[in-house]
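re the bet — no i am not wrong, look at it urself. input seq straight from the record:
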Amino acid sequence: MPLGKENPSELIEPEKMLANTTRKARKADKANITDNVNNVGSTYKPGHPSANPETATYNTTKKTFYVRENLFEKLSNFAWWERLSITDAINKVLEDGLKGKKTKKREK
């Protein structure tokens, strides 16, 4: 059933109303996103480590690894009980595991 004011020429189908409001919202959302990303003087880059030394991603590199399910479960449990993030837990486990190991840089 058409909705609208008392004048029949102003009646609007419900499907068209939904499409119009959705389209308007998407345009507004897109404008807000681009406004936030393009702030002048901003050093934030999506997907990049933070420039703030107090954050967990400061001075880090993003890598992808395959990890056995049982080892990831142990890591996840370790992080939970130590109240660490998975990232911090991986860093701690790697530091402890490599402690005392003699390593030298590879030639690239």
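see?? Residues 48-99 form one domain. told u. also The chain has two domains: 8-37, 48-99. so pay up
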